[in-house]
Write a structure and sequence with these properties.
Blueprint: E1 6-10, H1 12-25, H2 30-47, E2 55-59, H3 63-77, E3 82-86, H4 95-106, E4 111-113, E5 123-127, H5 139-150, E6 154-158, E7 180-182, E8 187-188, H6 196-200, E9 202-204, E10 222-225, H7 227-233, E11 248-252, H8 259-272, E12 276-282, H9 286-292, E13 297-301, H10 306-315, E14 318-321, H11 329-341, E15 346-348, H12 350-358, H13 360-364, E16 371-373, H14 377-384, H15 388-393, H16 395-406, E17 409-412, E18 418-421, E19 425-428, H17 441-454, H18 459-481, H19 488-504
Helix pairs in contact: 2-3, 3-4, 8-9, 8-17, 8-19, 10-11, 12-14, 17-18, 18-19
This protein binds ligand NPW and potassium ion.
Ligand NPW binds next to helix 1, helix 2 and helix 3.
Keywords: ATP-binding, Isomerase, Lyase, Metal-binding, Multifunctional enzyme, NAD, NADP, Nucleotide-binding, Potassium
Cofactor: K(+); Mg(2+)
Subunit structure: Homotetramer.
């Protein structure tokens, strides 16, 4: 596969729709898919050289359990020592699961009803719950999963670690902590969001013959673009150009003592190729900014000056407002004026978002695609009035509702950042790492996105490309500086390396 692909990230319902289409419309028997699923798991266990000297398989009553019984049979037929435990509710066995139990027993396999009692296994295979997990794990099931987590063997999850929501990545009560997860056909978005990455370990995605035809056009599905797509988004830089060709960016940032935010915005925008950056900031920041970034024009204010602001808005090809802006009445007036009068693409970050949250009526005035907002989870929580925990548990839906209501591009920052617009749906960014979880990182992101906006990228493309490049800079910085020592200014330094890497590949 080249790099011009779109990776799909499905939730539980979308996965079930693909299963059902394959079974009902294409006529592939469910049991055949289950056999492929089990064979794929055994193949991975063998390829990865997992110690199969003493295997423990723990199965539930749904089809995930059915996969587990089939895995047990195949391993046993391959002459491994296997012990199989059934912890599911006998009243809820699916037809396929019953058939797989029967097939295992026919091959001489023994099924123990209840949880494993000892800890002598080289590998523990979790087939308790898959994408059918529908509620919090409690009682006996909780005990089973906790017991499996305590066992010393390699932990192997079938389709998804039991207890992890395939849709949100949240742990519902408790979850299996896997070293490997073999997830069938399509990556479940829950393996990437929230606790998903921590619980899933290494994720392998075998093709088991489930057709994706029915869902690949579905605009509701979250996608990640391959590198080629980002490379093609990079703007041309013709020889016969000048600074005017690459746009004039107005950065409105930095209240008293917060010059750093304005500096990071502006410097990051220059590093992406912006032609000219003007910082509009509190007068206290003039000297420091002129010293830190002589390439920027610095215009300062002491009090609200509507005329000056309007003339700057006329000058600008794009605006980036909010980083370190503060929450004063003055900041509020500036933001209100910008929202009311700006005619060019405009990004709102940080304090700009906190001010928006306090003045939600401004949001209603923004209903045009030229606005990009870059909230982290807490800022999004303030904007939507949804507590952070609820937001984490339902972020995709909340994001969808938000953009369809306000018709703006929203970059929802988290360990996996989502970029949402009506035009392109929801995209998940896969670059970036925990070294970037530091003050100033968001200011750099706002600068990078604004840098693309001012070079005439559509707001949603600028947001996606900017998030990708920002994360890639972080990945390169971490590689050379280590996970603890990456500073926001390093992210800026590594933008050039990230861009060169993307251009070269
Ligand atoms: N043909 C196919 O579709 C294919 C599917 N495949 C495999 O099937 C998996 C999906 O199977 P599935 O839909 O049967 O659901 P699954 O994940 O086994 O869970 C349902 C069971 O769990 C129970 N339960 C749920 N939550 C619970 C809780 N908190 N606490 C307690 N119980 C709870 C629920 O109980 P109930 O709600 O009925 O009381 C029910 O018994 C998928 O991940 C993949 O591995 C592959 O073989 C490829 C072909
Ligand atoms: K599982």
């Amino acid at each position: 596969m080249g790099d011009d692909w779109m990776q799909l990230w499905v939730n539980a319902a979308q996965m079930k729709a693909a299963d059902q289409y394959t079974i009902q419309k294409l006529g592939v028997p469910s049991l055949e898919l289950m056999e492929h699923a089990a064979q794929a798991c055994v193949q991975v266990l063998e390829d990865e050289k997992v110690d199969l000297s003493h295997v423990c398989v723990v199965c539930g009553s749904g089809n995930n359990g059915g996969d587990g019984f089939a895995i047990a049979r195949i391993l046993q037929n391959n002459r491994y020592s296997v012990e199989t435990f059934c912890v599911g509710n006998p009243e809820h066995y699916t037809e396929e699961t019953q058939e797989q139990m029967h097939r295992l027993q026919e091959c001489g396999g023994k099924i123990t009803y209840g949880m494993p009692q000892e800890d002598s296994y080289s590998v523990v295979i979790d087939a308790v719950f898959g994408v059918g997990l529908s509620r919090k794990v409690e009682g006996r099931y909780r005990q089973v999963i906790e017991q499996m987590n305590r066992m010393r063997g390699t932990k192997f999850a079938v389709d998804i670690p039991s207890g992890l929501s395939a849709t949100t990545g949240c742990i519902l009560g408790c979850a299996f902590k896997a070293d490997y997860t073999v997830t069938f056909q399509l990556k479940k978005i829950g393996l990437e969001l929230s606790q998903g990455r921590t619980m899933a370990g290494r994720v392998i995605v075998p093709d088991i013959g489930i057709s994706t035809d029915s869902i690949c056009e579905d605009q509701e599905i979250v996608r990640t673009a391959g590198k080629d797509i980002y490379r093609k988004m990079l703007p041309d830089r013709p020889e016969d150009s000048n600074k005017g060709t690459y746009g004039r960016l107005l950065v409105i940032a930095g209240s008293k003592g917060m010059a750093g935010a304005a500096y990071l915005n502006a410097h990051a925008a220059y590093m992406t190729g912006a032609g000219l950056v003007r910082i509009y900031t509190s007068s206290d920041n003039r000297e420091i900014l002129q010293t830190l970034l002589p390439e920027a024009i610095v215009t300062t204010y002491e009090e609200y000056n509507k005329e000056e602001l309007l003339s700057l808005l006329t000058w600008a090809d794009s605006v980036c407002i909010g980083s370190g802006l503060g929450m004063s009445r003055l900041s509020e007036k500036i933001l209100k004026t910008v929202i009311e009068y700006v005619k060019v693409p405009c990004l709102i970050d940080a304090d700009g978002l906190n001010l928006l949250a306090e003045n939600k009526n401004y949001l209603n005035q923004m209903a045009e695609r030229r606005f990009v907002i870059t909230p982290h989870m807490k800022e999004m929580s303030r904007l939507t009035g949804t507590p952070v925990e609820e937001l984490k548990a339902d972020r995709i839906q909340i994001l969808k509702d938000f953009i369809s209501r306000y018709r703006i591009t929203c970059v929802l920052k988290d360990s996996r950042t989502l970029i949402a617009s009506e035009e392109k749906g929801i995209r998940m960014n896969l670059t970036g790492n925990s070294a970037m979880a530091k003050a100033g990182s968001g200011d750099v992101l706002a600068g990078v996105i604004s840098g693309w906006m001012v070079q005439e990228k559509e707001a949603e493309d600028a947001a996606e490309l900017g998030t990708y490049i920002h994360g890639l800079s972080g990945d390169l910085a971490k590689f050379e500086k280590g996970v603890y020592s990456v500073m926001a200014r390093d992210l800026i330094e590594y933008i050039s390396k990230a861009l060169m890497k993307l251009e070269e590949e």
